[in-house]
Amino acid sequence: MILTLLSSFTILFPLFFSKETVLRNTPTCVSKSKYQQECFLCGSTTAFTALSKGDLPEAFRLNKLSPFIYGFFLINICFFVVFFLHVWRKSLSVQKNKPDQ
């Protein structure tokens, strides 16, 4: 559930805020700031903002891995929603079939 909340935030934040706001509110990569070397996730934040705007080629240019991570997050959110709806419907049917006391 924690992964779903984090991935939901990661997907939704760039949808509702400008690229500048997103970049201003995300931490700087430790590898980049401490060792002046990019890590395999460098560029993901700006790539996620590009993906949120529907710009897949720009996202691939910024970080080749980010579209796959973004897709994984979307799939995770979809599975969570389906699971949540299943549990919710099941609890409603249990309450409906419960005899009144």
Task: Describe, in plain words, how this protein is organized in 3D.
It is a single chain. The protein has 101 residues and is mostly helical. It has one domain. Helix content is 74%, strand content 0%. It contains 6 helices and no strands. Helix 1 crosses helix 6 and helix 4 runs antiparallel to helix 5.
Describe this protein with a few key phrases:
101 residues, mainly alpha, 6 helices, 74% helix
User: Quick check: average pLDDT?
Assistant: 88
Helix content: over 70%
* Rg measurement, Å: 19 Å
Distance between the termini: 35 Å
Listing every helix as H and every strand as E from the N terminus to the C terminus, the arrangement reads HHHHHH
The tally of domains stands at 1
Low-confidence stretches: none
What can be said about the biggest beta sheet?
none
Secondary structure tally: strands: 0
Give the class from helix and strand content and strand pairing: mainly alpha
Oligomeric state, counting identical vs distinct chains: single chain
Portion in strands: under 5%
